[in-house]
Write a structure and sequence with these properties.
The protein has 19 helices and 26 strands.
Length: 617
């Protein structure tokens, strides 16, 4: 699915430090240089740089990347508009996440922070040297403005994410206090640390709530250099960036210029990559990865193709069913539809065996539920017996399986039994809805044409059940608009997770977000049990409790049959024209492309090779 810069930032935040929380050992009133949940911070107060960077990396060079669709705004903080790729490069937050710790962040705009009032408040101490690109200092007033603007006028996500943060107030030019409504929620100080700081003086003369193509003022390592609205955008490194020598920035932000070129779809983008129209490509299509990279650049050694392992939680990607639709409200109907997706056949015939079936909303982590509940998790769930599906207690969740032959008659029989029990009947080969008397009909709303080959077999299987179904492919703007307004039956979406779930779960599943346009509760979950479990996850007093409550939440969501789980892979698939070098140590919990650099010797050799290659055509 196409995602706005905000959603990309949230996805990255989930991977890096989406829900950073206070360590149990942190003493109240102690100023600290960072925050961590899982034990002590890895890096001391006087650390020089992250381990996964190379401090001797070369500054310079030009990198071109791709994006699909287009953009019509440089304001990533509101619901309206499609923001430009890479726009986060011009901004900074109070804290900067570490990519080699499960949940940790260190001072960026803020040099330190302090928990006060028995965890009812947190004070951030700003760096006096922090500057906007126009040379003016970053002050506490900017931080207060940013919080107020984002929470009251920004994207609906912020209202959910910071719902337990009551107010922000300046205690001095470089001190900001945030007052918290829930002292048990120890992740809140870290969540506040993710606040993107915006320039108050800039928005005194600019409307925060409007889309714009005027380059905004930032304080980050890059600024906008050029743009061709909807077609490309170029960022240039700020050579005198105020924070370039911070330990969180050493060895990062090496490229002088970063350009994003927009293409109609991934098929066109891949062909452009082969022609060296851009330099670096992250590949998401299994077919393209298996069959699309046999071209002269690869054969001549001018392009590197590799998979880089990671330890990120893979979350949940799946077919999402919109429970706001009356025809999809009933759990049995959603479960029946799940039996029409033949993952095993698809993995063999469409994906070249590259994927693993996803069985949890928190897959690839210790937070995923498995087998039957026991111990603390069972004790948590017992309180809800009779209010959750009985399978929560009796059956370990697994999505429907097949033998991979493409013959799924057994699965379709199971689906028919579910539909029969729900009152549906087949008349003249049409499955009739008992409430409307009309044929059950569903639409798959897609933005990526590559998914058509995956959905088409489901269409045939649904037809065998008497369900009329169709595929509708729309452009990225229409897709995002329909997603924001929940105007769909079934879409493909991803719920990315961190190693420390918390407030973001409100936006994903809480009843209060089900009818708010633009929220991430695109399923429309309205379940008091889920609401209570979210609160228990957020307020978990220790790691063991967090794991148990998250597994309980996971199990209840899975047996709600809100999604048809798809697949995941535990590595980044990348291809790039061979002009880059990178650190010897790769980060565990992210890709870290901002630690790479253009190697002058490789770039020179590549240019010579490209000239030779073109001359041979």
């Amino acid at each position: 699915m196409p995602i706005t810069w905000l959603q990309r930032g949230l996805a990255l935040g989930a991977t890096l430090a989406m829900v950073i929380a206070a360590s149990a050992e942190l003493a109240a009133g102690e100023r600290v240089h960072g925050y961590a949940l899982l034990g002590e911070l890895k890096y001391p107060a006087d650390f020089k740089h992250f381990d996964y960077v190379d401090p001797s990396s070369v500054k310079g060079g030009y990198v071109r990347q791709s994006a699909t669709g287009g953009y019509d705004s440089l304001n990533p903080f509101i619901l309206k508009g499609r923001s430009a790729s890479g726009i986060g490069l011009i901004y900074e937050s109070l804290l900067e996440g570490s990519l080699d710790e499960a949940s940790a962040a260190y001072g960026s705009i803020a040099e330190s922070l302090e928990i006060v009032d028995q965890n009812r408040g947190v004070v951030f101490y700003l760096r006096p040297e922090a500057r906007w690109h126009d040379g003016k200092p970053i002050t506490a007033d900017d931080v207060v403005f940013s919080f107020d603007a984002l929470k009251t006028r920004g994207h609906p996500f912020y209202r959910a994410y910071w719902s337990a943060v009551m107010k922000a107030e300046a205690l001095g030019p470089h001190q900001v206090k945030f007052t918290l409504s829930d002292p048990k929620n120890r992740e809140l100080p870290g969540i506040i640390g993710q606040l993107t700081v915006l320039p108050k003086h800039y928005y005194d003369s600019h409307d925060f709530e409007k889309t714009t193509l005027e380059p905004p003022l930032g304080s980050g390592p890059y600024r906008i250099a050029e743009l061709d609205a909807g077609r490309s955008i170029t960022y240039e490194r700020v050579p005198d960036h105020w924070g370039k020598d911070l330990p969180t920035n050493i060895g990062r932000h090496n490229f002088d210029r970063i350009r994003f070129d927009y293409y109609l779809d991934q098929t066109v983008a891949l062909e452009a990559f082969k022609a060296h129209e851009y330099d670096f490509r992250a590949e998401n299509g299994s077919k393209s990865w298996a069959t699309g990279y046999d071209f002269p650049g690869i054969r001549k050694g001018l392009v590197v193709k590799e998979q880089i392992r990671h330890e990120n939680p893979t979350g949940m990607q799946g077919f999402v069913l919109n429970t706001r639709r009356p025809k999809l409200k009933e759990r049995a109907v959603r479960e029946a539809i799940a039996y029409t997706f033949d993952f095993e056949w698809s993995n063999t015939n469409l994906f070249y065996g590259q994927y693993t079936r996803t069985t949890s909303f928190f897959s690839n982590s210790e937070l995923a539920s498995s087998e039957l509940p026991g111990g603390m998790e069972l004790a948590i769930l017992e309180k809800y017996r009779g209010r959750v599906p009985n399978e929560v207690f009796t059956t370990a969740y697994q999505p429907p399986k097949t033998d991979g032959s493409g013959k799924i008659r057994g699965n379709l029989r199971t689906a028919k039994k579910l539909l029969d029990a729900a009152g549906y009947a087949v008349k003249n080969r049409e499955l009739v809805d008992p409430n409307t008397g009309e044929q059950l009909e569903v639409e798959f709303l897609l933005v990526d044409p590559q998914f058509e080959r995956i959905v088409s077999p489901m269409i045939k299987n649904l037809s065998r059940l008497g369900i009329k179904s169709r595929i509708r492919i729309v452009d990225s703007a229409q897709y995002q608009n329909r997603l924001d307004q929940f105007d769909f039956d079934i879409v493909v979406s991803t719920f990315r997770q961190s190693l420390s779930p918390g407030n973001e779960q409100i936006d994903f599943w809480h009843s209060s977000k089900a009818e708010i346009d633009g929220s991430r509760n695109i399923i429309g979950v309205k379940d008091p049990v889920v609401d209570e479990l979210i609160d228990l996850v957020i307020n978990a007093p220790d790691r063991a409790s967090l794991i148990a409550h998250t597994r309980a939440l996971d199990r209840v969501l899975l047996w709600g049959h809100y999604v048809i789980p798809q697949w995941h892979i535990r590595s980044f698939r990348v291809a790039y024209w061979n002009k880059f070098s990178r650190p010897k140590i790769a980060p565990k919990y992210g890709f870290g492309f901002d630690t790479w650099w253009v190697d002058p010797a490789k770039a020179k050799a590549l240019d010579a090779g490209v000239v030779t290659l073109k001359g041979s055509n």
